């Protein structure tokens, strides 16, 4: 089971911000609805995937540039 560190919510009973963690199956101990948690988790996953895709694109572009330089010589 993955635990996602998220932003602190006002209704969370935990005092420390860092200890306010949610899992996909977390229901109401933070006063958040399961659907809301799911949405947050999905958004985090989406952000991660998007960043990963950006990195891969950048690498690919860099590789192409190097290839072009090699050909030009």
TrEMBL record:
<feature type="compositionally biased region" description="Basic and acidic residues">
    <location>
        <begin position="59"/>
        <end position="73"/>
    </location>
</feature>
<feature type="region of interest" description="Disordered">
    <location>
        <begin position="48"/>
        <end position="73"/>
    </location>
</feature>
<protein>
    <submittedName>
        <fullName>Uncharacterized protein</fullName>
    </submittedName>
</protein>
<feature type="compositionally biased region" description="Basic residues">
    <location>
        <begin position="48"/>
        <end position="58"/>
    </location>
</feature>
